[in-house]
Specification:
about 260 residues, alpha/beta, eleven-stranded mixed β-sheet, 4 helices
Length: about 260
């Protein structure tokens, strides 16, 4: 099926448009943009050069994808925005391409970016992530699979959000958010397990008990961090080992348990 393009849309002849793509009124698609099959682009959306959009994505009105990074060191280098398949990108979302020559901002598959959120240059978003309205991700932020970032959250440059973490609304994130945990507050602290997210993801009772014990070991026993990590790394549960590896790899520090 051929693409359906509204007559008021502005499409650069150098753009690559896949089959069964719909592009709405007054949308703008610049050259060196690739839109894969089955995508839907809403009215007034803008896809800037060097943007790749995977199959079956839905881009709503007034979204802007692939804009130049808000970085004073940027000098019009050739850099990219790479978006995977089956993403929902709602009204007014902005996602910027990378700062460095040849670098990429990367969005995985099946993510849901709600209205007016911002993903800055060089970010890495995994799969099945939800970013709610008005959340702001600074440059080089990494968000792992199935994390949930609530409304109006702000995340500092280079911070990481672990897999299946949940960040509560209005939180200020200046350090890494641990996998499987809920982080809330300004500055944020780890409140406990993301029980709803874990159950929805199919975690067993044994896995959840193991993660609860890991939380207590890290934050409630008074042990040194090295001793606590040693115990976590000896766990037979892979997800507890993932938690330990995340802590060990942290460069900014991580959100600690609240009292």
């Amino acid at each position: 099926m051929t693409a359906l393009i509204h007559p008021t849309a502005q499409i650069d002849p150098a753009a690559e448009i896949g089959e069964d793509v719909c592009i709405g009124p007054f949308a703008v698609v610049e050259g060196e943009v690739e839109i894969a099959a089955g995508c839907r682009i809403g009215a007034h959306a803008v896809l800037r050069r060097y943007t790749t959009l995977g199959p079956r994505c839905r881009v709503w009105e007034h979204a802007m994808l692939g804009g130049e990074p808000q970085d004073v060191s940027f000098r019009d280098q050739v850099s990219y925005l790479e978006i995977g398949a089956d993403n929902i990108i709602r009204e007014g979302v902005t996602i910027h391409r990378a700062t460095t020559e040849g670098g990429s901002t990367r969005i995985g598959d099946a993510n849901f970016l709600m209205a007016n959120c911002h993903v800055a240059h060089d970010c890495r978003i995994g799969d099945r992530v939800i970013i709610a309205n008005g959340a702001l991700l600074a440059g080089h932020v990494s968000v792992s699979d199935r994390a949930f970032i609530s409304g109006n959250v702000v995340i500092h440059q280079f911070a990481r959000v672990g897999t299946l973490a949940m960040v509560g609304g209005l939180a200020r994130i200046s350090q890494d958010c641990l996998p499987y945990m809920v982080a809330e507050g300004s500055p944020a602290s780890a409140r406990g397990l993301n029980l709803v997210g874990l159950r929805r993801a199919g975690f067993t009772a044994d896995q959840i008990r193991g993660l609860k014990q890991a939380f207590r070991t890290l934050f409630r026993t008074g042990r040194s961090l090295q001793d606590a990590l040693g115990e976590l790394e000896s766990s037979p549960l892979p997800e507890v080992q993932v938690l330990a590896a995340f802590v060990r790899s942290s460069r900014r520090g991580f959100t600690h348990g609240s009292l």
